[in-house]
Amino acid sequence: MGKRSGQVVVITGASSGIGRVTAHRFAREGARLVLAARSAESLEEVSAECRARGGEALVVVTDVSDERQVDALAFAANAHFGRIDVWVANASVFSYGAFEDTPPDVFRQVIETNLFGVVYSARAALPFFRAQGRGSLVITSSLFGKVTAPYVAPYTASKHATFALAQVLQEELKGTKIRVSVVLPATIDTPIYQHSADSPGVEMHPLPPLVTPKRVAKAIVRASRPHGPRAKVVGSAQGSLIAFNGLAPETYKRTVRPAMRILGMRRTDSPQRYGNVFEAGGATNSETGGWAKHRRRRLLLVSGGALALAAAVRALRS
To answer: What residue stretches are annotated with the Ketoreductase domain (predicted)?
Structure first.
């Protein structure tokens, strides 16, 4: 019997990256999984992977930016398995580019998916948790829920809001057996960057150092436990930026802009890309984005640290 034998776990954004690997980890612990995302084909792949790891899986194609679909997901989970023990609100989309270059419809859809997807998830899960007398909601926010950076305005705004929402829910649910936890990953090696909606002439690259999605999945599973952490940053190197920003906010701002421009952006002649912001498809829905195996990884790690340090020193002297 696994640690999660019999428990029912709903995971949104389960088709790739963090969600996919989290599903694998819960499956190894014997959970009964409800896998939600927009790509039916990818979900069926994940379902087979989970069954091979010892879990049961139900696939429910869901766009979390549609409240009715999220409600239907909750009812499908309860109808099939008879309960919901854990809900992992993980689905996210990404856009990259200057605020003025970001189309309003892209900005709106990032907020709809990343923020309202969590709002709808919480509203769908909580009635079942209250009826059962217990439950665990785990929200995947981001390091960008605690710090800011240029060129990622929609994503940063959405993740600040999801972190704040998690804190509010924790306060409101004190004294109950309903737990709310939030996980804040740093830069994770997932396909989200290939799926990004990039403004004309730019292409997003993840900032080093990269963290594996397995580390985030481990944190999510721990956070879902009765005595798990209420908030957990995954990626200690970039996580230190929270303290840096708190202690020296102006220096942080002068440091982060060149880091984003030099390490996070590649100039291209490409038109506006929409990635998977509006619909599933495009780049592969795999566990990782393959960034850690990139031939320039070592150079990026070294140059990234050197550039950040140099920028910080220049900022402190100015």
So the answer is: 7-191
Look at the pTM and tell me if it is higher than 0.85.
yes
Pairing of strands 265-267, 202-204: antiparallel
Residue 85 class from Cβ within 10 Å (0-12 exposed, 13-18 middle, 19+ buried)?
buried
- From the list 96, 120, 155, 193, the catalytic residue is 155
Both tokens assigned to 18: 């963090």
As a dihedral over the C-alpha atoms of residue 79, residue 85, residue 86, residue 89, rounded to 10 degrees, the angle is: 40
Q: What is the pLDDT of residues 76-93, one digit of tens each?
A: 999 999 999 999 999 999
- pLDDT category, 302, cuts 50, 70, 90? very low
Q: 77-86, 209-218, 283-292: which range is least confident on average?
A: 283-292
Which pLDDT band holds residue 284 (cuts at 50, 70, 90)? low
- Angle between helix 40-52 and helix 17-28 axes, rounded to 10 deg: 30
Angle between helices 104-111 and 153-172 (to 10 degrees): 20
The residue ranking higher by pLDDT, 110 or 258, is 110
Residue 225 host element (H or E): none
- Edge-to-edge strand list for the sheet holding 86-89: 56-61, 32-37, 8-12, 86-89, 135-140, 178-185, 231-234
With contact defined as beta carbons under 8 Å apart, do 121 and 89 qualify? yes
**pLDDT average, residue stretch 299-306:** 46
> Is 193 annotated as catalytic?
no
The answer, yes or no, to whether residue 192 has pLDDT greater than 90, is: no
Distance CA 87, CA 82 (A): 14
138 is written with which tokens?
């785990």
